[in-house]
Amino acid sequence: MKAYVFHAPGRSAWEEVPDPGLDGPGDAIVRVDTVTICGTDLHIRKGDVPAVRPGRVLGHEAVGEIVEVGRGVRTVRPGDRVLVSCVSPCGRCRYCREGAYGQCLGGGGWVLGHTVDGTQAEYVRVPFADLSLHPLPSTVTDRDAVLLADIFPTAYEVGVLNGRVGPGDTVVVVGAGPVGLAAIATARLLSPERVIAVDVAEARLEAARDFGADAVADAREDPGQLVADLTGGLGADTAVEAVGLPETFELCTRVVRPGGHVANMGVHGGPATLHLEDLWIRNLTVTTGLVDTRTTPTLLRMAAADRLPTGPMVTHTFPLDRMEEAYDVFANAARTGALKVVLGEPRREIVAT
Q1: Cα–Cα distances in Å, from 308 out to 152, 155, 190, 234?
Q2: Cα angle: 233, vertex 237, 240; to 5 degrees
């Protein structure tokens, strides 16, 4: 089969690799119909995630059809159309029992495209299939469903829920890329008074308005002043960091009010300064996190009910064999206007009614 393989920082390729086979009784083999590219994949290609070794097939998000299951799989079967989650929980360890699947101690967690071969391929072996695969309702299309493998649960769990967004709050989302836009959309579910988006790209600020932002600010033009003006000088209740740069993290700590929350979602490739000399007296709560995907079933139900704005997120589509071109488009979003790129040949693209 063909797959997108990481060889070294700056060197990856769509090439021939062996077909995957079952490795344990809880595995499933999924034929990949639809896949997407994550910002984390870009970090891996740059060498920011040293746990990813040369030869690894990348990708951790997909929709496809099960073609084979191990003898221990009970809840899914060949022929099922499924969402492949970015997190694969064992379901037995202490963290999984607490719903913290991303911290799995039993050989799971974020493994696809990280410590085992991933989804940017024609076929993928999925461990812990009973908990890692979600059967899809017929009303959710492949290209909508694939966005629920990672960015929507990440935004909802790591940004909105960790950030304790609540009714009447002011929420600032720094970074209006795909996961930032998903944070705007899912924050609206909890009835904040206002959501403010901050970015440097005009096209992404316009997209933020489409996803529910009440106000937008250019990061180069003192967004802190806009936040102060809109909150009577108090500051935001929650600031969500959705970029992964020191300057965007520090901006979040400046725009949040005393007693507020900074929820870091961005993947940082280097250190960021935590100015405790300024922050200690302000009673701030700073959270980080890898998504657990415990909310994926809820988000799937909301997508089936047409309550999530998934459609506008996809700006470019490609067949699987144009993976390298898709990466180029996604990596150069400032030039191409890309939000999410989706690849594949969906075999069951059903329009929601």
Answers
A1: 9, 12, 13, 31
A2: 115
Q: With a cut of 50, which residues of the chain have pLDDT below it?
A: 348-353
Is 13 exposed, middle or buried, given 0-12, 13-18 or 19+ CB atoms closer than 10 A? exposed
- Tell me: the pLDDT tens digits for 195-229? 999 999 999 999 999 999 999 999 999 999 999 99
Whether 184 and 173 have beta carbons less than 8 Å apart is answered as yes
DSSP E strands in 41-114: the ranges are 56-57, 62-69, 81-84
Token pair recorded at residue 157:
């769990």
Give the total residue count for the chain: 353
Cβ burial, residue 222 (10 Å; 0-12/13-18/19+): exposed
Burial class (CB in 10 A: 0-12, 13-18, 19+), 327: buried
Phi-psi group of 79: left, alpha or beta (phi > 0 → left; psi -120 to 50 → alpha; rest → beta): left
Pairing relationship of beta strands 194-199 and 170-174 according to DSSP bridges: parallel
Start-to-end C-alpha separation, the chain: 35
Report the 10 Å Cβ neighbour count for 271: 7
Separation CA 2–CA 11 (nearest Å): 17
For 278-336, what is each residue's pLDDT tens digit?
999 999 999 999 999 999 999 999 999 999 999 899 999 999 999 999 999 999 998 99
Q: Using CB atoms within 10 Å of the CB of residue 19, give its burial: 0 to 12 exposed, 13 to 18 middle, 19+ buried.
A: exposed
Helices 223-230 and 246-255: crossing angle in degrees, nearest 10, is 20
Let me know: does 20 contact 3? Beta carbons within 8 Å: no
What is the rounded CA–CA span in Å between residue 112 and residue 109? 9
**Model-wide pTM > 0.85:** yes
Angle made by CA atoms 6, 34, 199, in degrees to the nearest 5: 75
Judge residue 106's burial from the number of C-beta atoms within 10 Å of its C-beta, 0-12 exposed, 13-18 middle, 19 or more buried: middle
User: Which residue type is seen at 122?
Assistant: E
